[in-house]
Each structure stands twice: as structure tokens, then as C-alpha cells.
């Protein structure tokens, strides 16, 4: 199993619509508004990193109202 945190910048006024749309996408486990440089952070899960990149992120980038995304893949060290 592979996980990634997706940091998302959202167009003003589209926050609720984007969060609702994200939660409907297969592989998105959570979507939460945060303080800081991004508007929302989503936890994305897939069977491997390739699935996250090719399927889930492709669907997320189609969501209207998303300005920019950044992806941090989760790695287990212990």
C-alpha cells in the first residue's frame, strides 16, 4: 500500500465544492482544510505509487476550482 499527502490551493469561493468533489474520488481517504500556505490537504491511498500518480492524481486534477497541487509521498523508515 502507498500513501501521499496532496497539498492543494483552491480558487476563492470554491472551497466547499472542491472538498466535496475530492471526497468522492476513489483513493482519497481524507480532505481537510488547513492553515498555512495551502488551503487543503488530502490523504491519498493506492496499491502503489504508480497508481496514485496515474489514476488518483489524474482524477483530482480534473476537479474545477483547484489552482495548484503539490504531492508528498509517504515513506516508512522503520
Set out the fold topology.
Layout (H helix, E strand, L loop, with lengths): L1 E9 L4 H9 L4 E6 L6 E7 L2 H12 L5 E8 L5
Antiparallel strand pairs: 1-3, 1-4, 2-3
Question: Quick recap of the structure?
Answer:
The chain is an alpha+beta fold and 78 residues long. The protein is built from two helices and four strands.
CATH fold-level name: Alpha-Beta Plaits
CATH class: Alpha Beta
CATH superfamily: Lrp/AsnC effector binding domain/regulation of amino acid metabolism (RAM) domain
Secondary-structure element series: EHEEHE
**Cα distance spanning the termini:** 15 Å
Beta strands, count: 4
Could you list the spans in which at least 5 consecutive residues all have pLDDT below 50?
Answer: none
Mean pLDDT: 95
Structural class: alpha+beta
* Radius of gyration based on Cα positions: 12 Å
Approximate shape: globular
CATH hierarchy: architecture: 2-Layer Sandwich
Number of spatially distinct domains: 1
Beta strand % = 35-45%
Structure overview:
With 78 residues, this protein is of the alpha+beta class. The chain has one domain (2-73): Alpha-Beta Plaits (2-Layer Sandwich). The chain has two helices and four strands. It has helices at residues 15-23, 49-60; strands spanning 2-10, 28-33, 40-46, 66-73. Strands 2-3-1-4 form a four-stranded antiparallel beta sheet. The longest helix has 12 residues, at 49-60. The two termini are 15 Å apart. The mean pLDDT is 95.
Can you tag this structure with a few keywords?
4 strands, Alpha-Beta Plaits, alpha+beta, 4-stranded antiparallel β-sheet, 78 residues
